[in-house]
Amino acid sequence: MDYDDDDHNDGGYGNEPEEDEMEHDMNDEEQEEGDGFNNKVDFNKPAKSNLPAPKAVAKEDRTTTPYMTKYERARILGARALQLSMNAPVLVDLEGETDALNIAMKELNNKMIPLVVRRYLPDNTYEDWEVSEMILP
């Protein structure tokens, strides 16, 4: 094998066309035809939806369980830890804790987290549960 060949150093791309050969500008007719769709979108307006807005269920008419799921717990702890890391006021007495997640866990165990869990239901309603009224996992 002779390494002095010209095609060795081009990485196997010697047969590619030059850049000016690859570019193809659309002529005026191609630009006017388009794809037949109106592609003008105003991103400042909210999207239209045919679905009705979800409705709240009264506190006394709630049907879901008061038990907090492990997924709700994880989301609550993460959200509260983020708030604490951004200098939100701590709602429990600290005993040397400095980690935001540990403080959030302590607040959750004392049911002091000021957040609400919203559970969406298949019948287009939702239930709001305060963290303080939920049973922890």
From TrEMBL:
It is found in: Nucleus. Its main location: nucleus. GO terms for biological process: transcription by RNA polymerase I; transcription by RNA polymerase II; tRNA transcription by RNA polymerase III. Keywords: DNA-directed RNA polymerase, Nucleus, Transcription. GO terms for cellular component: RNA polymerase I complex; RNA polymerase II, core complex; RNA polymerase III complex. GO terms for molecular function: DNA binding; DNA-directed RNA polymerase activity. InterPro entries: DNA-dir_RNA_polK_14-18kDa_CS (IPR020708), Pol_omega/Rpo6/RPB6 (IPR006110), RPB6 (IPR028363), RPB6/omega-like_sf (IPR036161), Rpo6/Rpb6 (IPR006111). Coiled coil: none annotated. Residues 1-64 are annotated as: Disordered. Residues 16-35 have a biased composition (Acidic residues). Belongs to the archaeal Rpo6/eukaryotic RPB6 RNA polymerase subunit family. NCBIfam families: PRK01099.1-3 (NF002208). HAMAP family: RNApol_arch_Rpo6. This is DNA-directed RNA polymerases I II and III subunit RPABC2. It comes from Linnemannia gamsii. The lineage of its organism: Eukaryota, Fungi, Fungi incertae sedis, Mucoromycota, Mortierellomycotina.
